[in-house]
Amino acid sequence: xxxxxxxxxxxxxxxxxxxxxxxxxxxxxxxxxxxxxxxxxxxxxxxxxxxxxxxxxxxxxxxxxxxxxxxxxxxxxxxxxxxxxxxxxxxxxxxxxxxxxxxxxxxxxxxxxxxxxxxxxxxxxxxxxxxxxxxxxxxxxxxxxxxxxxxxxxxxxxxxxxxxxxxxxxxxxxxxxxxxxxxxxxxxxxxxxxxxxxxxxxxxxxxxxxxxxxxxxxxxxxxxxxxxxxxxxxxxxxxxxxxxxxxxxxxxxxxxxxxxxx
Length: 262
Fold this sequence. Notes:
Layout: H1 2-18, E1 41-42, E2 59-63, H2 72-77, E3 80-89, E4 93-94, H3 98-107, E5 112-117, H4 124-134, E6 145-148, H5 162-180, E7 185-188, H6 190-195, E8 205-208, H7 214-217, E9 225-233, E10 241-246, H8 250-260
Parallel strand pairs: 2-3, 3-5, 5-6, 6-7, 7-8, 8-9
Antiparallel strand pairs: 1-9, 2-10, 3-4, 9-10
């Protein structure tokens, strides 16, 4: 489904770029390496039209075991300001690199938070208990994240109705809020957001949109984080890594940290 989202986003970009007949100048396309923000590579770059991530000054990564060994000093030196680290999945899987990444990111003085990949074959309370068993409550950590997207798992292919999705996810996030003292951030994808009317949730969002600006793809939705690439290149990490931006200035980022750290 992420692939379909990319395709739809590309079609949207093409359509926007095609506009401009009748004497109207077409929007300028912006590619990797442009803008005032930190410069990172991309193994599958595309032209952004109608808005791009490269003028944002606060960039971050999200990672899991697939990033392997990470040189965190290089990562920090490249301009990365935060890291979301996969901790758990469902009710019985823990990322084997989570504890190591958690400690290494802290040692490199990179603000970091843990995320949980939500499954629809376990209750929200079961998954919350599993997350709490694996993620320490630690002063200075960013809020926990619940990753809500349709899974492609062979062991859990369920797509429950929206009311069940929202009920169990709310149970999960309410338990985490009580335990960690901060409301979780909601990460989601375009199709899941629309299918489950997440626009109705008064929560803080981290939105995935790898081909179009969130203001186009998620019209009217406020957000704090935007995942803009799944094929980023960052010094200190071998292979591709997800890239994100904070939707605000460095001063606003510092204020966000003061307000949202545990």
